[in-house]
Amino acid sequence: MRLDFTPEQEAFRAEVRTWLDAQLSGEFAHIREIQGISEGAEQRFPWERHLGRAGWNQLSWPKAFGGREANLFEQVIFHEEYARSGAPGRLSHVGLELVAPTIMAFGNDEQRQRFLKPTAEVEIIWAQLFSEPNAGSDLANVQTRARLEDRPGGQVWVLEGQKIWSSFAQYSQWGMALVRTEPGSVGSKGLSMLLIPLDAKGVDIRPIRQMSGGSSFNEVFLDGAETAAANVLGAAGEGWKVAMGTLTFERGVSTLGQQMGFRNELDHILRVAKENGAARNPGIAKRLARAQAELRTMRYTALRMLGGSGLSLAGLTYKLYYTSWHQRLGELAMDVLGPAGEIAVPGSDAYRLQKMYLESRSDSIWAGTSQIQRNIIAERGLGLPREGKAAR
Ligand SMILES: Cc1cc2nc3c(=O)[nH]c(=O)nc-3n(C[C@H](O)[C@H](O)[C@H](O)COP(=O)(O)OP(=O)(O)OC[C@H]3O[C@@H](n4cnc5c(N)ncnc54)[C@H](O)[C@@H]3O)c2cc1C
């Protein structure tokens, strides 16, 4: 198996690196200073629009939808170089990595024409409106309802209910919402995926303040909000199938870029440990070395996983592994900082690492909690009895 890159792929890497370095030492130099998942939105969106206009946001998309049809390795290279450049993660990732692929897979021509280009160019920012207070791991328990009503201009869906944990909804113009459209239906039956304008009457978006100080997610209240009858993705009543499609896009090639981000974080911790003397502590030194070895193992596991196909055991274990690694890295960062880590002045090492530590606490929750990942590994990966049937 090849685990390095060909000369053509290295040439592509040089193209990406040259472009990013030119932008980030020019007009967008200030972008590198922005940290965390929720800081500096007003500066981040112009940068993300710039990426879209240059074609990088839609690198993997088919040419028919304005993309460059980059192969898997080119996508990996782009994500690695992006993280290496020090530019912050993209706030528009819900639109780019979840909603756009879902529209390509399940939308009709009119929806593709209308939404894909402005999504790539970050003229439309999207929120994923799946979770509810009583529908997280048990997503099929969605209770938000939508019914069709006549209006002078044609039929509309009228929505009632509440969504929660909706990342970046406060900046979004549109939401992709899983809702119940068949009255009396239960579980995964009777659901539909609606595209809803978030600046419409009846939509109330309330940011949730997080322990890191920022607000990356929101509560979204829908009280008579309306969207045109045509704004249903896939057929009405087939929302579950569409939602499952979306969730398969959640863990793609950006994983490798994420690892480059982890590399930057580990390098940062190593530098601080050398500067403040923490690296002389044998316990800390051992944990740093272990983090390094595990990161290298993760990189090869991820490459193997992306190169394979279907539902592999490596793929199933990967999210569980990297999220627990990242949480341990956050704890290591705080131990390296020592008491200095408790006082964080913006811009300081302590501020950046403390933010990383606090934000890493959510890694074991989003995109399927660690407990749910373990259930999936047990049932689908190892063929163990399904949950609830084990004791029979
Ligand atoms: C940073 C972040 C961003 C997010 N962004 C979005 C977003 O943009 N859009 C969106 O729709 N949602 C988003 N979410 C929500 C996320 O999908 C849910 O938090 C997640 O699915 C878990 O659901 P829950 O919070 O309701 O917890 P629950 O499902 O209530 O779980 C509570 C606890 O019970 C455990 N548990 C539940 N069921 C089982 C079981 N069968 N076996 C064993 N243990 C179980 C869980 O592991 C967890 O520890 C985000 C979450 C986070 C943390």
From TrEMBL:
InterPro entries according to UniProt: Acyl-CoA_Oxase/DH_mid-dom, Acyl-CoA_Oxase/DH_mid-dom_sf, AcylCo_DH-like_C, AcylCo_DH/oxidase_C, AcylCoA_DH/ox_N, AcylCoA_DH/ox_N_sf, AcylCoA_DH/oxidase_NM_dom_sf, Mycobact_Acyl-CoA_DH
One GO MF term on file is:
flavin adenine dinucleotide binding
Location of the Acyl-CoA dehydrogenase/oxidase C-terminal domain: 237-381
Kindly give the Pfam families that the UniProt entry links to this protein. Answer: Acyl-CoA_dh_1 (PF00441), Acyl-CoA_dh_M (PF02770), Acyl-CoA_dh_N (PF02771)
**Entry GO terms, CC:** plasma membrane
Cofactors needed by this protein, per the record, are: FAD
Please state every residue range assigned to the domain named Acyl-CoA oxidase/dehydrogenase middle: 129-214
The Acyl-CoA dehydrogenase/oxidase N-terminal domain extends over 6-122
What are the alphabetically sorted keywords of the record? FAD, Flavoprotein, Oxidoreductase
Q: Would you identify the family this protein belongs to, as annotated?
A: Belongs to the acyl-CoA dehydrogenase family.
Q: What is this protein called?
A: Acyl-CoA dehydrogenase
